[in-house]
């Protein structure tokens, strides 16, 4: 496909319609669109992509060893952050904002027209792309189609999966270099597959694998179903056995129940009309039970009484012994007091006797002669006599010793009852007496009731029958739930048995198993073929890329081409035929461009190449060599979008004029160095306006709308 | 204790008293009966204590009571005076009190009372 004409409307900084005419450049494949930053190079680059593929992606990058596109750009949206494709003034000012690209080209001998537009269907300033109507109209030769079919027509000429080899972004290229270089997982394998249209084949393999999976799943499912059925049949057999056992058990239980029930019914019949007797019997039973209870109570109180009675004699004796105990206690105190008095009196007496026996008439304290000594001696003798008399009186009292008194007190204490004995005896005796009275009453009542009897009725016999009836009723009540439960369990088991049993176990479908095997073989063949195909392509790409590289670098003595190894990693071949270890960035960039070129050429797709910021990261020599090589290719149009700093306009046009078919410069009004009216140079800038002094023409330079200027080549 | 100065003597009661004392011995099978004592000696001790407390004495009979569980010496401390005064043995005095107690019990039972009410 070769471009003849491009028109863009309201895209990026291009307000209104702008045209690029590629016609009249037969035989020349070089095209250049120069501009400073912000004038619309990349917008034009994107406009071409959008026209051809309906989508523009943010700059791509290498992620996880593979090339990954950036996110899709919006046509309209928030201009402060989303970088929408539509011209901002058109979006904000037009009642029905619209942007569009129109391309005229030819593909061999067929004329091609592509028109893509995005137009608001909600009036002014649609908030997002859902508010837009997208239209595509494509004509190739005599074929004409729109929308999806139109897209298919485009991609027949220009496959989307090869887009990145034809739309080259200089900035992304630096990352692509990293992908190509040895060390990355997979290298350019995906790209080689893309140019060989292998993705389609890979998709075929994938689809076939999916088919095989489905067949396998069915075969597997059949096997599982068969296993399940066998398992079910076994389970059904077990359940049937259980059902038989349960039914047998149920029969036994029902038989027992029925027997008991019929006996019960006969007994009920027999006891009908004997309600009075029944009441009598119930009363008897009640009294007997009461009597039993009271007997137990009485036994307990009798035991208790016996226990307390063991101290009754002490309680009785103590009425007198207690008095004696108190007396003995008091006597003991007296004896202690008397003994003390005797002891102290004897001591005093001994002292006085000693004084008398050693009498000398001299004071024993001051050793001075005592006045009236004789009178003093008689005084002492008198005191001794008095003391002896008092001692005699003390000794003449009770003849009981302290030990004897203590022993008596101890003997009396042995007769002392524990505290509260009388009360406890009285209480226990009263309780026993009350229990006894209650029991006597019940016994009397019972005797009366038993004596009452009923005419013609053997109370004992009747009582036994009533008792039997009660027992049977209890038995029946207990048996019923067990029978009901068993019946329910049988019903549940029968349902389960029906669910599991009855179906024949079919063998699995042999055709499906065979089909799976066949697809497996086919898949292996396809995968092997693909591997061979890919390797052949690798060698072909390596050969083409090497030719280009040698051509551009032009140093055959040192650099002999490019190596693309079996891991699809690229390297530069040195003089010794091995990969050089330290290539320059320019050499690496050139290698990458050559590999991309080789991939593109191997794809045999003939389409224009668009290269945004092509001189980035290249030194002057490599930049020149690159342009010279690519603009010399006759098969592809090569459109570069250089910054005016990368490639100087004048120099480039002068040096490569023979290879350039057309060139344009994108400018703003402020960039103009010549009068827009008369073409005179050096206009005068006055504020936001530019003025041509010779003709007086003035123009606004505050506008940032891009103007396209055709350069003379 | 000066037990050597008085005789210990033996224990005995009348037949009627012995019969009464026997009827007061506990019988597990007859909880309704007023039989609060575990043995005849226990009954005897109760009767003696009752007689002593009420100062009721009576001439005992010839039916002897086992002295093994009724140590008359234990009561020397309360009976010594009377024994010495009356020239009685301890066992003799105890027996007299027990006989007196039995009469009190019998009278009380005859009046419809219970044995242990006599403690109250």
Architecture overview:
The complex is a heterodimer of chains A (713) and B (120). Chain A is an alpha+beta fold. Chain A is 56% helix and 15% strand. Among the domains of chain A are: 275-309 and 423-456; 312-417, Orthogonal Bundle (Helix Hairpins), CATH 1.10.287; 669-707, N-terminal domain of TfIIb (Single Sheet). Chain B has 120 residues and is mainly alpha-helical. Helices cover 47% and strands 3% of the residues of chain B. Chain B has a two-stranded antiparallel ribbon. In chain B, helix 2 (40-54) packs across helix 4. Classes of the chains: A alpha+beta (713), B mainly alpha (120). Chain A binds chain B through residues 295, 298-299, 301-303, 305-306, 308-310, 312-317, 319-321, 324, 407-408, 411-412, 414-415, 422, 425-426, 428-429, 432-433, 436, 439-440, and chain B through 1, 26, 28, 31-32, 35-38, 42, 45-46, 48-50, 52-53, 74, 76-78, 114-120.
> How many angstroms separate the termini of chain B?
32 Å
Count the domains of chain B: 1
The H-and-E topology of chain B, N to C, reads as: EHHEHH
Major protein interface: A-B, 37 and 28 residues
* Low-confidence region ranges of chain B: none
Could you name the CATH class of one domain in chain A? Mainly Alpha
Largest sheet of chain A: 6 strands, antiparallel
Radius of gyration of chain A: 65 Å
> Which structural class is indicated by helix and strand composition of chain B?
mainly alpha
What form of chain A results from the Cα inertia axes?
elongated
- CATH arch. level architecture of one domain in chain A: Orthogonal Bundle
Structural class of chain A: alpha+beta
End-to-end C-alpha gap of chain A: 23 Å
Q: Overall pLDDT of chain B, averaged? A: 91
């Amino acid at each position: 496909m070769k471009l003849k004409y491009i028109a863009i409307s309201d895209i990026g900084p291009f307000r209104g319609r702008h045209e690029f005419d590629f016609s009249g450049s037969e035989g020349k494949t070089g095209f250049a669109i120069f501009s400073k930053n912000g004038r619309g190079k990349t917008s034009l680059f994107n406009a071409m992509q959008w026209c051809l593929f309906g989508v523009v992606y943010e700059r791509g990058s290498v992620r996880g060893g593979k090339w990954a596109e950036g996110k899709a750009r919006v046509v309209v949206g928030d201009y402060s952050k989303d970088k929408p494709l539509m011209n901002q003034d058109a979006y904000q000012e037009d009642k029905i904002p619209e942007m569009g690209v129109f391309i005229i080209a030819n593909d061999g001998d067929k004329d091609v027209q592509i028109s893509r537009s995005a137009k608001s269907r909600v009036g002014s300033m649609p908030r997002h792309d859902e508010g837009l109507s997208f239209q595509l109209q494509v004509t190739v030769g005599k074929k004409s189609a729109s929308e999806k079919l139109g897209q298919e027509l485009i991609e027949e000429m220009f496959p989307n999966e090869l887009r990145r080899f034809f739309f080259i972004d200089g900035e992304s290229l630096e990352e692509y270099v990293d992908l190509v270089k040895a060390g990355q997982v997979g290298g350019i394998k995906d790209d080689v597959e893309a140019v060989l249209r292998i993705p389609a084949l890979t998709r075929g393999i994938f689809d076939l694998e999916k088919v095989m999976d489905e067949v396998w799943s069915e075969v597997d499912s059949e096997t599982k179903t068969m296993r399940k059925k066998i398992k079910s049949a076994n389970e059904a057999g077990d359940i049937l056995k259980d059902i038989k056992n349960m039914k047998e058990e149920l029969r036994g239980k029902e038989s027992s129940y029925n027997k008991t029930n019929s006996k019960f019914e006969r007994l009920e019949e027999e006891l009908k009309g004997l309600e009075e007797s029944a009441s009598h019997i119930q009363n008897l039973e009640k009294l007997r039970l009461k009597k039993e209870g009271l007997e137990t109570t009485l036994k307990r109180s009798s035991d208790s009484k016996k226990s307390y009675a063991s101290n009754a004699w002490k309680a009785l004796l103590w009425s007198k012994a207690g008095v004696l105990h108190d007396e003995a206690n008091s006597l003991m105190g007296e004896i202690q007091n008397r003994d003390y008095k005797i002891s102290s009196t004897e001591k005093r007496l001994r002292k006085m006797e000693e004084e008398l026996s050693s009498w000398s008439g001299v004071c024993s304290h001051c050793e001075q002669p005592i006045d009236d000594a004789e009178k003093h001696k008689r005084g002492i003798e008198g005191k001794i006599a008095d003391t002896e008399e008092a001692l005699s009186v003390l000794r003449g009292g009770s003849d009981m010793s302290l030990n004897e008194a203590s022993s008596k007190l101890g003997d009396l204490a042995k007769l002392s009852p524990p505290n509260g004995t009388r009360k406890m005896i009285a209480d226990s005796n009263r309780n026993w007496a009350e229990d006894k009275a209650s029991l006597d009453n019940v016994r009397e009542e019972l005797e009366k009731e038993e004596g009452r009897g009923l005419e013609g009725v053997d109370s004992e016999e009747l009582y036994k029958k009533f008792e039997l009836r009660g027992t049977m009723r209890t038995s029946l009540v207990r048996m019923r739930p067990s029978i009901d439960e068993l019946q329910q369990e049988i019903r549940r088991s029968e349902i389960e048995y029906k669910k599991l049993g009855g179906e024949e176990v079919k063998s699995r479908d042999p055709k499906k198993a065979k089909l799976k095997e066949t697809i497996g073989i086919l898949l292996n063949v396809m995968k092997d073929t693909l591997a061979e195909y890919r390797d052949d392509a690798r060698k072909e790409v390596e050969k083409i890329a090497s030719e280009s590289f040698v051509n551009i670098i032009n140093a055959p003595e040192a650099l002999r081409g490019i190596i693309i190894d079996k891991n699809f990693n690229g390297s530069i071949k040195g003089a010794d035929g091995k990969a050089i270890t330290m290539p320059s960035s320019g050499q690496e960039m050139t290698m990458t461009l050559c590999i991309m070129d080789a991939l593109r050429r191997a794809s045999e797709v003939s389409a224009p190449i668009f290269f945004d910021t092509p001189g980035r990261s290249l030194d002057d020599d490599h930049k020149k060599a690159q342009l010279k090589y690519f603009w010399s290719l006759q098969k592809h149009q090569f459109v570069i979008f250089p910054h005016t700093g990368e490639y100087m306009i004048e120099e480039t046009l002068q040096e490569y004029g023979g290879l350039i078919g057309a060139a344009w410069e994108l400018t703003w009004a402020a960039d103009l160095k010549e009068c827009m009216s008369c073409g005179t140079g050096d206009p005068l800038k006055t504020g936001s306006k530019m003025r041509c002094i010779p003709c007086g023409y003035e123009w606004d330079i505050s506008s940032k709308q891009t103007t396209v200027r055709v350069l003379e080549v | 204790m000066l037990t050597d100065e008085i005789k210990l003597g033996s224990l005995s009661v009348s037949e009627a008293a012995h019969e009464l004392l026997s009827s007061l011995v506990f019988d597990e099978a007859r909880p309704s009966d007023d039989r609060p004592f575990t043995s005849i000696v226990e009954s005897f001790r109760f009767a003696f204590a009752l007689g002593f407390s009420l100062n009721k004495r009576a001439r005992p009979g010839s039916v002897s009571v086992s002295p093994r569980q009724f140590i008359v010496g234990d009561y020397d401390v309360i009976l010594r005076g009377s024994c010495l005064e009356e020239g009685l043995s301890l066992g003799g005095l105890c027996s007299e009190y027990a006989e007196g107690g039995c009469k009190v019990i019998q009278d009380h039972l005859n009046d419809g009372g219970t044995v242990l009410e006599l403690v109250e």
